[in-house]
Amino acid sequence: MGPTLNGLVKLQSIENRLGAVKAKLTRYRRNVIIQENQLRSLQNALEAKKEEIQLTKLQSDRLELDLRSRDEEIAKYRASLNLAKTNKEYSAILTQMNTSKADNSKLENQVLDLMKDIEADETECAEIKSKIEEQKTKVENTRTQSQSAATKLEADIEEIQKEWDQAAKDISAEALNIFKRVAETYDGEALSTADEDENRGSYSCGGCFMNITAETVNLLMSKDDIIRCPNCARILILSTSSE
Ligand SMILES: [Zn+2]
């Protein structure tokens, strides 16, 4: 390979390092966002639980009110029992009173069930709150870690970018444009090797695995031109084994 292709190979290796450091930086930043999202979803869960408790309390208040008015009813029945003039009247009032009592004990059970629900929800709230506190610490730690890592990685990126700019000076504007365009398409991978399949004696693109003609390989061996894979458009270079 001549200076053009050698220059591109060098640029690609710097590009790869740059990409790796940038990806690392992105991972750190994403970690912070993931932890923040987890905190937010815990906070939302807490709000939902609290709302549920409010609704259950309202429901239980209504039942309590009902209960009290029935208690008054029962008291009235009890008073009128003493005033009953006949056995028939007495037993009619007694039946009504017992029905009200039965209704009331049903209501009491419902209220008790609701209280149990509230208690369980409150326990859950307390658990979520302690998880929120843990998660807040985790977010803080992740942020601190990420910030200190980012400072270092950003400095690395700046350094590698300088190397990149320096290496790019040895490459013609046209070649550099092609390199940038292809790198953008393939997540930084602008070059691919023409790999020889020893069994078949043919070559294929290391990027897309499509066949490359012997003519193309001959051009690569004899010239220092940019030749792109006809299928994926990556810039072809010879792999070290076929150099
Ligand atoms: Zn290809």
Description:
The model has no long low-confidence stretch (mean pLDDT 95). Strand 2 (202-205) and strand 3 (211-212) form a beta hairpin. The protein is α+β, with helices and mostly antiparallel strands and 243 residues long. The protein folds into 2 domains: 22-161, Helix Hairpins; 173-242, no CATH class. It has a 4-stranded mixed beta sheet with strand order 3-2-1-4. 76% of the residues lie in helices and 7% in strands. Helix 1 runs antiparallel to helix 2. Bound molecules: zinc ion (ZN). Zinc ion is lined by residues 192, 205, 207-208, 210, 229, 231-232, 234.
CATH architecture of the largest domain: Orthogonal Bundle
Main sheet record: 4 strands, mixed
Number of domains: 2
The outline comes out as rod-shaped
TL;DR?
This protein has 243 residues and is α+β, with helices and mostly antiparallel strands.
Note the main attributes of this structure:
alpha+beta; 243 residues; 4 helices; single chain; rod-shaped; four-stranded mixed β-sheet; binds zinc ion; 76% helix; 2 domains; Helix Hairpins
Topology of helices and strands:
Layout: H1 3-83, H2 87-168, H3 173-185, E1 191-197, E2 202-205, E3 211-212, H4 214-222, E4 235-238
Parallel strand pairs: 1-4
Antiparallel strand pairs: 1-2, 2-3
Zinc ion is lined by residues 192, 205, 207-208, 210, 229, 231-232, 234.
